[in-house]
Design brief:
Elements (H helix, E strand, L loop, with lengths): L3 E6 L2 E7 L4 E5 L6 E2 L10 E6 L2 E6 L7 E2 L2 E2 L2 E3 L5 E4 L2 E6 L8 H6 L1 E3 L5 E2 L3 E2 L6 E3 L10 H4 L13 E5 L8 E3 L4 E6 L3 E8 L2 E8 L5 E2 L2 E2 L5 E2 L4 E5 L2 E7 L2
Parallel strand pairs: 3-4
Antiparallel strand pairs: 1-2, 1-11, 3-5, 5-6, 6-9, 7-8, 7-10, 10-11, 12-15, 13-14, 16-17, 16-25, 18-19, 19-20, 20-23, 21-22, 21-24, 24-25
């Protein structure tokens, strides 16, 4: 069974929403997946990105904010029985499937700040100027295969693929997409997830007011399947996606 949200107010259950999309939006306007028609709720209040068995909540710069289990938050890795509070409304998250990413892993996820030094063998060579984390930047080195939102998937896998940096001082450097999920971007500006699936690679918008582009066109809210030699622009960094031969 997919994860789901149970919407309630004052203890009364109003509706149940299965999280069967990669990106589920919550807000007052009718175009949202979960509509809460209340003036305390922003037009687009929050979004939940669900990839495999893991779900990530993000506040979309709402006016009144939100909390999880009574704690105000902007981003949260959802776990079974978490309660999201938006005004007088509560959304209980239920997921009986085992997750592969821990909350600590999500908080420590590193993302690109600028064109980054990286190679397939060494992963990212991270400096304070190049990379920032969602918590704080530290001068250290980390391996790209361990830093992203990584999960184990079952079934077949597509051919190996690479993302190559096209601009900046690290132009020409490559990152091999060896894990099922790789997070790239700049906190507060643009963040996207590259997901490796049995039937191909997909890029999904996670954070930011504008969407990444592929071949000059915005990918929008829905997952976008990547083709050989697609050109990605994310947080000012231009990259080429291609399959290894």
């Amino acid at each position: 069974m997919p994860a789901k949200l149970i919407l309630s107010m004052d203890g009364a259950v109003l509706k149940e929403y299965p999280l069967n999309k990669e990106r589920t939006t919550i807000g007052r306007k009718p175009h949202n997946d979960i509509v809460i028609d209340n003036l305390a709720v922003s037009s687009e209040h929050a979004a939940i990105v669900t990839i495999l068995n893991d779900s990530f909540l993000e506040d979309l710069d709402s006016t009144n904010g939100l909390s999880v289990n009574g704690v105000p938050t902007k981003k949260h890795f959802l776990q079974n029985n978490d309660v999201i509070e938006i005004g007088k409304y509560k959304l209980k998250y239920l997921n009986d499937q085992p997750t592969q990413t821990t909350a600590a892993d999500f908080e420590k996820t590193m993302v690109l700040r600028a064109p980054v030094k990286m190679s397939p063998a060494e992963g990212f060579n991270r400096t304070q100027a190049d990379i920032t984390s969602t918590q704080k930047a530290e001068t250290t080195q980390f391996n790209a295969t361990a830093s992203g939102l990584t999960v184990d998937a079952t079934g077949g896998q597509p051919p190996s693929a690479v993302v190559q940096i096209l601009n900046g001082p690290n132009s020409g450097k490559e990152l091999e997409l060896v894990k099922n999920l790789t997070t790239l971007g700049k906190p507060g500006v643009q963040v996207a997830v590259l997901a490796r699936r049995p039937h191909g690679y997909f890029i999904t918008h996670v954070e930011g007011g504008s969407f990444p582009t592929v071949n000059g066109s915005s990918i929008g809210e829905q997952p976008h399947q990547l083709s050989d030699h697609d050109l990605i622009e994310l947080a000012g960094v231009k990259m080429e996606f291609y399959f290894k031969t």
